[in-house]
């Protein structure tokens, strides 16, 4: 346990120190890279609330990631062009408002998807969540109003009161702030009564039912919370790229989020952070070396599964912990 | 310190004319893996060939694979601008990737030259002084086919995938086609089985079929269409019948009419030289993507001969003159920095064992695009 | 005329369904026996298509290519099983997902390394070229009829293999109780390798047969993989019969949806708008069907073990 905590602290320090240092050395790009890591980690922390705590392997979280992204994109574009959306509601460039809308929209969508999907379990659950995400994907591709497959670009990053979001380090600080909040939230959730019920629902459903808690309700609540967190990450991702497109809704994106968690270590607080760090750095470093980077990325991922059980954190901190 | 040195160097360069080559960094973001890799590899190879032939050793090209993912393309663009500090960007194949990258890099005052893909927003309201399209506006080839179809076809069946470029395609076709539309069908993006659509074509009374299905979709459709024995004449934009896919379609493509701004038999010295050099270097025939990338590189070289790349205004002006030996015979920029060029009609033929295209006519002379009027540079 | 067109579309739907069945059968067999989620199944499909195209180009015979596709996919499958998959049976599904996701990346790039980036040429064999008349005056492509035949033959073959042979008995035993058959002295390791190779060969066969109709290119397996998963989930995971019913259902619904939805909408809106909205709805249709079926029957149409 202590070694895992030490690993988490070292990783946190590195993730803060490295971009600040490179930024001072005149290499601002590494700030962008760190921002990408933070956002993908946030999305995966969201997924981990369903997957790690509740054992709900959602292969459709790209739907929430993309919805969050489109919320940011659509509100920003309407604000930029000064044209109201439906029913005269104006767009906005204020990040907190965008996040709130993303949370509400993703929670609503997750409530509908979850209410249907949670009737199934196991591989059926994996595939039915995929089905819903595919519906969203094809809808976004063929819906012309917001760019279809071409996506939607907005030129200037959205605003946060009191912070100049155009400065890469400021935007990174916002993303780290939200990632930190989500980790604290995850930790408290894990050790709350709700968290115990959720983990009990994964391990022993009948016992939970015996104390009068409906596992379905617990799981649905977890799924909705998980989707909302991933949705905020989607909004940030849109802000990072100043662009949102249906590829954020693709099944490959859902797969990537799952991969981040497994890579880092399932059921670990810092699993998504470690996974996102390794994945983004590998993608970046290998892509710069060879055009066959996907081949070597595959080999490394395979090596991690076969020989590093429990993901990256497992290697450093020993046996996986299943709370 | 660095800055003053650079400024001195620039001043010296300016005083001696631009004859002394200065180091230039060009970032190329293109697709080198996955199903669309063939196009990106042609763009990279032709671009490198042109630079190599020029003998300009001061040009450094940084190539990275976008894997056809918009988010990855944005990340690479950020890296090339912020870390590699490139002077110019080029290379993107797909419209959706261009839409992700171009607005943000041109806003950072980086010049982007498109060797392929010309989405309509970038030609119209969102045009930018830093964005030069050396290929075409997306609608151009489709418009040419619409114009060509007027002569012999009274009822056309038209088909494209259900995404923005597909809708632009059919809109572009209908902009010039005056006959009747026997059927208009949108297919799923990435669809590989077209039996249902071919059955509809068979059941319609169309006397011609126009398709826009790039990449693997076009290969699948053309094979299945030939196998079905429907026999109604097939035509489309050059993308579906370019050199990179003709080998995979085989004899099924013979006789298909298609439109493009270039063909390997176009009769001019630059083109003959290009086709021979490309074949000698890579042992295959160039595609239209290769031709466009070759022109892009030569356009850059021509501008470098006139102005330093650090002096953005002078360099943009030099680019805009388009004073280079194009393999397309003639080329100039419209007010929105998109091409004004001839669009030809080609026919797929067999030369020995090789299936390729031959020019059979000209659909448009000095053709611009419909969006230039919305562009205010 | 409309009736003829409808008949032709129904045949197209069946043909698409049988093609999906070839993919889904291997996937569901592997899941049923070993409990393994194999995302790399699409890569085996691609390997089959490339092997067939390469051998057909070298020898001029599609049939030799077809043999090669079976051999190459089965060999690749056996190799993957022995080197990688074997270590994953005891792991949870998530490790299997990551490992087979990694295999997709490796196999795609390795194939590109071997064969280059351009799509390969593969045509249908002369014997099966041409069309046959349909009642009502239309014509139907012979090769597509042959695909329906091949799909049906594989369905019957698999049924006989599992219901009537010693090997099938072991497979059924493996599905219901793994410890028991190991205790009975059946060499479970080689049984698993054989089942995996068999599933791979089915995928390779599908790739070769379909490759003659479509484009033989890198990444061709992924869209089919997703559809095959849809099929086995609708049918009930592990059930060959479910895979057959699911595949035919998906094939027919998808084909008729693409054809009928735009026509239906065109009675309300302009043809152009109907074409694009109809196409958008059609692309979502099978996922809607799948969600509906799972909402009503959470274990699919034919739950395993029933």
Structural class of chain C: mainly alpha
Number of helices of chain C: 11
The main sheet of chain A comes to: 2 strands, antiparallel
Residues in helices of chain A, as a percent range: over 70%
Main sheet properties of chain C: 2 strands, antiparallel
Q: Could you name the CATH topology of chain A?
A: ABC transporter involved in vitamin B12 uptake, BtuC
CATH architecture descriptor of chain A: Orthogonal Bundle
Counting copies of identical and different chains, the oligomeric state is: heterotrimer
Number of separate strands of chain A: 2
List the helices and strands and how they pair.
The complex is a heterotrimer of chains A (323), B (377) and C (306).
Chain A: H1 2-24, H2 29-53, H3 62-81, H4 95-117, H5 122-142, E1 152-153, H6 168-190, H7 193-203, H8 205-210, H9 215-241, E2 243-244, H10 251-264, H11 271-289, H12 293-307, H13 311-317
Antiparallel strand pairs in A: 1-2
Helix pairs in contact in A: 1-2, 1-13, 2-6, 2-9, 2-10, 2-11, 3-4, 3-9, 4-9, 7-9, 10-11, 10-13, 11-12
Chain B: H1 2-15, E1 24-30, H2 37-54, E2 59-65, H3 70-82, E3 88-90, H4 95-107, E4 111-114, H5 120-123, E5 131-133, H6 140-152, E6 155-161, H7 164-176, E7 180-187, H8 195-203, E8 208-211, H9 216-228, E9 234-237, H10 243-249, E10 257-260, H11 269-282, H12 288-304, H13 312-321, E11 332-333, E12 339-351, E13 354-367
Parallel strand pairs in B: 1-2, 1-3, 3-4, 4-5, 6-7, 6-8, 8-9, 9-10
Antiparallel strand pairs in B: 10-12, 11-12, 12-13
Helix pairs in contact in B: 2-12, 3-4, 6-7, 9-10, 12-13
Chain C: H1 2-34, H2 41-59, H3 62-83, H4 93-115, E1 131-133, E2 139-141, H5 142-164, H6 166-176, H7 178-183, H8 188-211, H9 221-235, H10 240-265, H11 271-296
């Amino acid at each position: 346990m202590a070694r895992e905590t030490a690993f988490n602290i070292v990783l946190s320090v590195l993730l803060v120190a490295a971009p600040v240092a490179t930024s001072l050395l005149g290499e601002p790009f590494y700030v962008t890279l760190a921002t990408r890591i933070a956002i993908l980690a946030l999305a995966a922390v969201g997924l981990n609330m369903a997957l790690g705590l509740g054992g709900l392997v959602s292969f459709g979280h790209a739907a929430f990631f993309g919805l969050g992204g489109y919320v940011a994109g659509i509100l920003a574009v309407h604000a930029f062009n000064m044209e109201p959306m439906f029913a005269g509601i104006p767009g906005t460039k204020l990040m907190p408002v965008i996040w709130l809308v993303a949370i509400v929209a993703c929670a609503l969508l997750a409530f509908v998807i979850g209410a249907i999907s949670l009737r199934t379990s196991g591989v059926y659950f994996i595939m039915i969540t995929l089905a819903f995400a595919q519906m969203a994907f094809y809808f976004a591709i063929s819906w012309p109003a917001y760019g279809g497959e071409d996506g939607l670009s907005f030129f200037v990053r959205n605003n946060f009161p009191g912070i100049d979001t155009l400065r890469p380090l400021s935007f990174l600080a916002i993303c780290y702030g939200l990632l930190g909040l989500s980790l604290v939230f995850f930790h408290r959730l894990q050790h709350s009564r709700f968290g115990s019920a959720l983990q009990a629902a994964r391990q022993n459903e009948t016992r939970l039912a015996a104390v009068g808690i409906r596992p379905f309700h617990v799981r649905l609540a977890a799924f909705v919370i998980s989707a909302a967190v991933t949705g905020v990450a989607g909004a940030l991702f849109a802000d990072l790229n100043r662009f949102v497109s249906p590829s954020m809704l693709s099944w490959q994106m859902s797969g990537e989020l799952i991969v981040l968690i497994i890579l880092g270590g399932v059921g670990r607080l810092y699993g998504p952070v470690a996974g996102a760090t390794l994945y983004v750095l590998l993608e970046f470093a290998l892509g710069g070396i060879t055009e066959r980077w996907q081949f070597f990325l595959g080999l490394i991922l395979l090596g991690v599964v076969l020989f590093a059980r429990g993901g990256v954190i497992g290697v450093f901190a020993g046996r996986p912990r299943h709370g | 310190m660095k800055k003053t040195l650079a400024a001195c160097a620039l001043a010296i360069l300016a005083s001696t004319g631009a004859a002394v080559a200065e180091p230039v960094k060009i970032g190329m973001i293109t697709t080198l893996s996955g199903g669309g890799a063939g196009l990106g590899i042609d763009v990279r190879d032709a671009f490198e060939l042109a630079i190599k032939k020029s003998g300009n050793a001061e040009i450094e090209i940084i190539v990275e694979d976008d894997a056809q993912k918009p988010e990855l393309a944005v990340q690479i663009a950020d890296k090339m601008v912020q870390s590699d500090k490139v002077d110019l960007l080029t290379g993107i194949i797909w419209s959706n990737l261009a839409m992700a990258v171009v607005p943000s890099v041109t806003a950072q005052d980086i010049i982007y030259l498109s060797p392929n893909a010309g989405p309509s927003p970038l030609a119209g309201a969102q045009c930018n002084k830093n964005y030069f399209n050396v290929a075409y506006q997306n609608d151009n080839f489709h418009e040419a086919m619409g114009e060509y179809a007027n002569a012999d076809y009274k009822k056309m069946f038209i088909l494209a995938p259900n995404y923005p470029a597909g809708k632009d395609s059919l809109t572009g076709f209908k902009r010039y086609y005056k006959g009747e539309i026997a059927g208009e069908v949108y297919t799923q993006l990435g669809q590989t089985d077209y039996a249902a659509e071919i059955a509809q074509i068979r059941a319609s009374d169309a006397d011609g079929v126009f398709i826009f299905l790039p990449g693997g979709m076009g290969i699948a459709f053309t094979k299945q269409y030939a196998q079905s024995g429907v026999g109604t004449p097939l035509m489309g934009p050059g993308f579906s019948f370019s050199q990179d896919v003709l080998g995979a379609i085989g004899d099924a493509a013979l006789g298909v009419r298609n439109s493009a701004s270039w063909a390997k038999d176009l009769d001019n010295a630059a083109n003959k030289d290009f086709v021979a050099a490309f074949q000698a270097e890579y042992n295959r025939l160039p595609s239209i993507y290769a031709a466009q990338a070759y022109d892009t590189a030569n356009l850059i070289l021509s501008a470098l001969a006139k102005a330093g790349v650090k002096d953005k205004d002078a360099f943009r002006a030099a680019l805009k003159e388009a004073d280079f030996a194009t393999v397309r015979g003639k080329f100039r920029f419209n007010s929105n920095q998109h091409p004004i060029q001839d669009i030809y009609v080609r026919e797929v033929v067999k030369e020995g064992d090789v299936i390729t295209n031959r020019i059979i006519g000209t659909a448009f002379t000095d053709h611009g695009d419909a969006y230039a009027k919305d562009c205010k540079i | 005329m409309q009736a003829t067109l409808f008949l032709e579309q129904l045949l197209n739907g069946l043909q698409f369904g049988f093609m999906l069945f070839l993919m889904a059968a291997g996937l569901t067999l592997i899941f049923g026996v070993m409990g393994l989620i194999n995302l790399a199944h699409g890569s085996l499909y691609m390997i089959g298509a490339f092997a067939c195209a390469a051998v057909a180009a070298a020898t001029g015979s599609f049939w030799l290519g077809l043999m090669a596709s079976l051999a190459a996919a089965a060999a690749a499958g056996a190799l993957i099983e022995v080197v990688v998959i074997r270590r994953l049976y005891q792991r949870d599904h998530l490790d299997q997902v990551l490992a087979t996701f990694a295999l997709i990346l490796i196999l795609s790039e390795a194939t590109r390394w071997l064969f280059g980036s351009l799509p390969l040429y593969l045509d249908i064999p002369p014997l099966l070229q041409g069309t046959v008349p349909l009642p009502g005056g239309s014509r139907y492509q012979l090769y597509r009829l042959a695909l329906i035949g091949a799909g049906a033959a594989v369905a019957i073959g698999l049924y006989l293999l599992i219901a009537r042979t010693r090997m099938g008995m072991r497979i059924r035993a493996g599905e219901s109780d793994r410890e028991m058959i190991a205790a009975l002295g059946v060499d479970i390791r080689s049984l698993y390798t054989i089942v995996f190779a068999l599933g791979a060969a089915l995928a390779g066969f599908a790739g070769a047969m379909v490759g003659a109709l479509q484009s033989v290119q890198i990444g061709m397996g992924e869209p089919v993989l997703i559809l095959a998963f849809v099929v086995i989930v609708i049918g009930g995971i592990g059930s060959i019969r479910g895979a057959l019913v699911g595949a035919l259902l998906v094939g027919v619904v998808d084909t008729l949806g693409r054809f009928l939805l735009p026509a239906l909408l065109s009675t309300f809106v302009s043809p152009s708008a109907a074409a694009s909205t109809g196409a958008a709805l059609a692309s979502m249709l099978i996922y809607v069907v799948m969600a509906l079926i799972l909402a009503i029957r959470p274990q699919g149409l034919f739950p395993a073990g029933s």
